[in-house]
UniProtKB/TrEMBL annotation:
InterPro entries: YdhW-like. This is Putative oxidoreductase subunit.
Length: 212
């Protein structure tokens, strides 16, 4: 399944047992020509998680049951970065850790959204979604979408975040707009005027059904 558009965010703990054994095997090398290289193991581990809609935090490799040494992990990740066979492995730096994903199964935008969810930065997640929507399509962002994948935010969380964003300078461009049926949308003044945002949300919620 491809995650270029929308996928549920799975739990990182759901790991293929074979990959678990491979990662553990990095600490106890076995003399066999059939075993994959450690860098290949890490890359495949990341790809598997991306296919399931998951980012892989760097800390995962440092923690049990894998417990890869810091120095060894740095070498392996640099090896992946330099190897053309692993050009699909990308890294995002968050406020808490570095996160890895495969562009074969996950888009850059989905990965960025997932990072904000993992780090529980709801205000930044909302701002990212709204700005991306307004710049890319362009259209205002329906607030109800924040209760769906990959966010699954609760209504109270969304209301609190929007209230906090209203007084935060870094989110001064994020504005609210409602359709005539009181459906709430958000838009960014960096990419869209209030009039355009209102016209679009009115079309989505009312006019398109009056003029099929």
């Amino acid at each position: 399944m491809n995650h270029q558009d929308e996928l549920p965010l799975a739990e990182v703990s759901e790991i293929d047992e074979a990959k678990r054994q491979w990662l553990q095997g990095m600490r106890h090398p076995v003399d066999t020509v059939t075993e994959p290289e450690p860098a290949e193991i890490l890359a495949e581990f990341i790809r598997q998680h991306s296919a399931a809609g998951q980012l892989v935090a760097r800390a995962v490799f440092l923690s049990p049951p894998y417990s890869v040494a810091e120095e060894e992990l740095s070498v392996l990740l640099e090896s992946i970065k330099q190897n053309g066979d692993h050009a699909d492995i990308a890294c995002l730096t968050g406020s808490q850790d570095d996160y890895y994903y495969s562009t074969q199964a996950m888009s850059e935008n989905y990965a960025a959204m997932s990072l904000q969810v993992v780090e529980q930065d709801i205000c930044r997640a909302i701002a990212h979604a709204v700005r991306f929507e307004c710049q890319t399509y362009p259209r205002p962002y329906k607030v109800a979408m924040l209760m769906q994948a990959p966010y699954y935010f609760q209504e109270a969380q969304i209301e609190a975040a929007i209230a906090a964003m209203d007084i935060a300078p870094e989110y001064a461009d994020i504005r609210q707009v409602e359709s005539s049926t009181a459906v709430l949308y958000l838009f960014s003044e960096r990419f869209m005027t209030y009039g355009k945002a209102y016209g679009l949300c009115e079309w989505f919620e009312v006019e398109q059904f009056q003029n099929p």
